[in-house]
Amino acid sequence: MRDYTFYFIFSILLICCYSCVQDQHLTDETPPNIIVIFTDDHAKNATSIYGSDLIQTTNIDRIGKEGIVFTNSFVTNSICGPSRAVLLTGKYSHINGFKDNHDQFDTSQETFPKLLQRNGYETSIVGKWHLKNKPTGFDYWNILIGQGHYYNPTFVNNGDTLDYEGYVTDITTDLALDVLENRDQNKPFCLFYHHKAPHRNWMPDSKHFDEFADKDIPFPETFYDDYSSRTSAAHLQDMEVVNMNLSNDFKLQPQHYESHTGTGGMATFNAEVGWAGNYNRMNAEQKAAWDERYDPIGESFKEAKLSGEALDKWKITRYLRDYLACVKSVDNNIGRVLDYLDKNELTENTIVIYTSDQGFYLGEHGWYDKRFMYEESFGTPHVMRYPKKIKAGQLSDEFVVNIDHAATLLDYAGIEVPAEIQGTSIRPLCEASTPDNWRQSVYYHYYQSTGWHTVKKHYGVRTNRYKLINYYEDNEWELYDLDTDPNELSNEYANADYAQIVLDMKLELRRLQQEYKDDSFL
Ligand code: CA
Fold it and tell me: CATH 3.40.720.10 region(s) of the chain?
């Protein structure tokens, strides 16, 4: 009898202890794990949760459906390196010092991964870094060199250079899963899972060769924008789909064309040499699969001798079929990470953010690339999931900006947000309590006028209805009424009916420049 009593009491104690451990594991105070999934050049228009009918991005959509979708998420400076510096610091480019891709990030400055690390987090980054310096604030880093390569990429693993065999999106994901599998179980983790894809030159994985092979790609509504009411900047850009190069962009081999065409955004870049370099990274097996898919495309191009609109259609089709296949690979690989979280009971207490360093043109205005403050590249996909604190199925159209990530994640981690951070925690938006004084306008500043694509420097402000842009080196202005002209085709700056709006928008612009301490244009 005494033995039974002992076992009974012992069992009750065991259950109590187990419950305590479980409770401890899931208390409100338990710091969340964090995964920042960051892609390069992914447009909202190629994300099904934003209404794209070009592609199904099932796993990215899943993050949004199980959390919150931001329909008005913007970047401060629409280009790769600067956007990454903004993510790390929560500060505009003129403050963090990385204004364009010619700069080098000052890694001695404060970043939110450093703050997480000092507060007990295990921090890691895998994939694209592109800040031209060794990462700081990460316990583990394994990063691509510069832009990296799609096939058989070289990574730098905490200082050691390593060549990998395979496709970059798969490899980056393998590394992310390794980080999760080998994490310190006594610490919360923050993983930066940063893809190269879908950056130019859009070389798909052979697994996805067939998926978009026959996909009809319609011309975007604004493909033949003639820039008639715009200032000189739109006329001077070199980022038109029709000027992509036959080799590196469309992957034709020399035997497939009589003469090579396309400026490709930089006339001095030897695209044929660039393409040969990318192609020759592939091993024999990869090349065989590639040739089987792409040689017939080249042969039929050579035979068809297309011109005019038919040639334009061929180009937008070729561009987007490859771009979408690269996005598909990202989406499938994100599914592997979400599955890992599920299988390891990490889903509930892990914040997962999916976003891109900026948006991208998929032929709108005739363009590829980014840089301009127009909606396609100023906006970016942005979904976020955290089952413990964020209710599923939410959608927010409030203005959120990439300066907000640092403050948001520190807030959720229970770490004081330094006053120097210029962004604001979007936690209230995620938890259905939007403050009355939430921002009503967004400030933008782009700097890289030299090198690729020749887009003039500009700053601007966007409100719910209007957008004012100043190409300030020549003091050329544009004003768009997004209610009546959502495609931004009609510059109303000189229209007398908008004179008061222009004045109001200029005041708002100056107010934001003071608030963010931006005098870098002077
Ligand atoms: Ca980018």
Answer: 2-201+321-438
CATH homologous superfamily of domain 2-201+321-438? Alkaline Phosphatase, subunit A (3.40.720.10)
| 381 close to 238: Cβ distance less than 8 angstroms | no
326 CA from centroid of ligand 1 (Å) = 14
User: How many angstroms separate the alpha carbon of residue 199 from the centre of ligand 1?
Assistant: 7
Which ranges constitute the DSSP H helices of 110-161?
112-118
The pLDDT tens digits for 191-250 are 999 999 999 999 999 999 999 999 999 999 999 999 999 999 999 999 999 999 999 999
Tell me the pairing of strands 394-396 and 68-70.
Answer: parallel
Reduce the DSSP state of residue 73 to 3 states and report it.
strand
Q: Tell me 151's DSSP state.
A: B
Written as one string, the DSSP assignment of 229-293 is TS-HHHHH---BGGGS-TTTTT---GGG-SS----TT-TTS-HHHHHHHHHTTS-HHHHHHHHHH
Distances (CA, A) of 230 to 343, 469, 513, 517: 53, 11, 24, 29
Predicted confidence band of residue 22 (pLDDT cuts 50, 70, 90): very low
CB 210 within 8 Å of CB 292? no
Per-residue pLDDT reduced to its tens digit, 158-168: 999 999 999 99
CA–centroid distance, 82 to ligand 1, in Å, is 9
CA of 12 to the centre of ligand 1 (A): 57
